Amino acid sequence: DVKVTQSSRYLVKRTGEKVFLECVQDMDHENMFWYRQDPGLGLRLIYFSYDVKMKEKGDIPEGYSVSREKKERFSLILESASTNQTSMYLCASSPLFGVGEKLFFGSGTQLSVL
Amino acid sequence: TQLLEQSPQFLSIQEGENLTVYCNSSSVFSSLQWYRQEPGEGPVLLVTVVTGGEVKKLKRLTFQFGDARKDSSLHITAAQTGDTGLYLCAGAPSGTYKYIFGTGTRLKVLA
């Protein structure tokens, strides 16, 4: 089975800190995604990557950046954390873009910014 | 911009009742998928619908893709407490690689 591992389950940071959220997948998937999940808003796409060193903005990229130096690892960076970035962050991976592709998710990181 | 709107947002029903959840968009999708998410976990894929008008059944769950491929529905027959969870529709609008999710429907089935 595909495993997508997020480095932290819970994280508490202070306003202004630089925050790194790490995600690793073990199935050689081409695509990786970062979403944030807030009540009533579903999952909103922050960034995605379809190859090493390639990235595309999602719907809400402001305040975030990403890094994909190796195929299996996709990092989400909050350059200067703010309280409105308190949220559940979910990482996902999928094999290739195509009709009916399936996303595999990690268990999420609940980030609190104080 | 939320391209996939789900309704209702919340649903609380008794065991044995039927229910339908809707997923609507103004955009055309090459396929739509339905996921279920339980507390503390990431979403897990239930089904993919690809062809306009397609109907798929998964035990007591029936999924339909609209003829114009802009909407989908999930119908649950004789709901059970194990159906409790957050249901999400998802897909990439045709011509894009942006894989987006709907706003979600939180279902609670009471014994």
Description:
The complex is a heterodimer of chains A (114) and B (111). With 114 residues, chain A is mostly beta strands. Helices cover 0% and strands 56% of the residues of chain A. Chain A has strands at residues 4-6, 10-13, 19-25, 31-38, 42-51, 54-57, 64-70, 73-78, 87-94, 104-105, 109-113. In chain A, strands 2, 4, 5, 6, 9, 10 and 11 form a seven-stranded mixed β-sheet that branches. Chain A is globular, with a radius of gyration of 13 Å. The termini of chain A are far apart. The model of chain A has no long low-confidence stretch (mean pLDDT 92). Chain B is mainly β and 111 residues long. Helix content of chain B is 0%, strand content 50%. Chain B is built from no helices and eleven strands. Chain B is globular, with a radius of gyration of 13 Å.
Key attributes of the depicted protein:
A: 114 residues, mainly beta, B: 111 residues, 5-stranded antiparallel sheet
Strand fraction of chain B equals over 45%
Secondary structure class of chain A reads mainly beta
Give the SSE string of chain A.
EEEEEEEEEEE
The coarse silhouette of chain B is globular
Number of helices of chain A: 0
User: What is the beta-strand fraction of chain A?
Assistant: over 45%
Binned, the helix content of chain A reads: under 10%
Q: Give me the oligomer status.
A: heterodimer
C-alpha Rg of chain A, in Å? 13 Å
pLDDT < 50 stretches of chain B = none
H/E element sequence of chain B: EEEEEEEEEEE
Arithmetic mean of pLDDT of chain B: 93
Summarize the structure.
Chain A has 114 residues and is mostly beta strands.
Give the arrangement of secondary structure elements.
The complex is a heterodimer of chains A (114) and B (111).
Chain A (H helix, E strand, L loop, with lengths): L3 E3 L3 E4 L5 E7 L5 E8 L3 E10 L2 E4 L6 E7 L2 E6 L8 E8 L9 E2 L3 E5 L1
Parallel strand pairs in A: 2-11
Antiparallel strand pairs in A: 1-3, 3-8, 4-5, 4-9, 5-6, 7-8, 9-10, 9-11
Chain B lengths: L4 E3 L2 E5 L4 E6 L7 E6 L6 E6 L5 E4 L2 E5 L5 E6 L8 E7 L8 E2 L3 E6 L1
